[in-house]
């Protein structure tokens, strides 16, 4: 009887951690963190419930890992988009181009961090993850504004962060991916006014 030979390019089976994170990402993002119980996550991941607790320790820790993975994907997408731009102004405004790409993804359901924050307990791992995400967004805008030579780069960063958040809420609630384009135009006006000061 001939033996089966694995294809050289066959990818290895995802780890238990990866399967749990993939299942959590799909379920939590589309249905909500509080709505989805652990039993659904482990069933979708095809693992035993004990595996979830061995890998993450608790549902809160799983949610934190899910949110951190989303932050990483968003950061990578923004960084990839910004490589297309040369001037500091273009790079700063390019953040909204990256955001617009997220808005057009199939199944876009708003900002996972905003949704999670609304359900998080004070001081919980979930709140810590949402705080890290917000700090990353604010730091990104602060660094880009500073690189662009804006005198009040922190003030501009706060304004741009509000635009970024507002565009995300608008894209979700109005089901309008062009919110990123509108936010980009407003960001350009804010930037140009800040440079003149």
Can you give me a brief rundown of this structure?
By secondary structure, the chain is mainly alpha-helical. The protein contains nine helices and no strands. The chain is elongated, with a radius of gyration of 20 Å.
Notes on the protein architecture:
This protein is an all-alpha fold. It has helices at 16-31, 38-45, 49-55, 59-82, 88-103, 112-119, 125-147, 153-173, 179-196. Helix 4 (59-82) packs across helix 5, helix 4 packs parallel to helix 7 (125-147) and helix 6 crosses helix 7 (125-147). The protein starts with 15 loop residues before the first helix and ends with a helix.
- Ranges where pLDDT stays below 50 over 5 or more residues in a row are 1-5
Number of E strands:
0
- Report the sheet-strand fraction: under 5%
- Principal-axes geometry comes out as elongated
Tell me the distance between the termini.
80 Å
SSE string, helix = H, strand = E? Answer: HHHHHHHHH
Q: What structural category characterises the helix and strand content?
A: mainly alpha
**Computed Rg:** 20 Å
Helix percentage: over 70%
Biggest sheet overview: none
Number of helices: 9
Mean pLDDT: 94
Q: Key terms for this structure?
A:
9 helices, disordered N terminus, 197 residues, single chain, mainly alpha
Write the layout of secondary structure elements.
Blueprint: H1 16-31, H2 38-45, H3 49-55, H4 59-82, H5 88-103, H6 112-119, H7 125-147, H8 153-173, H9 179-196
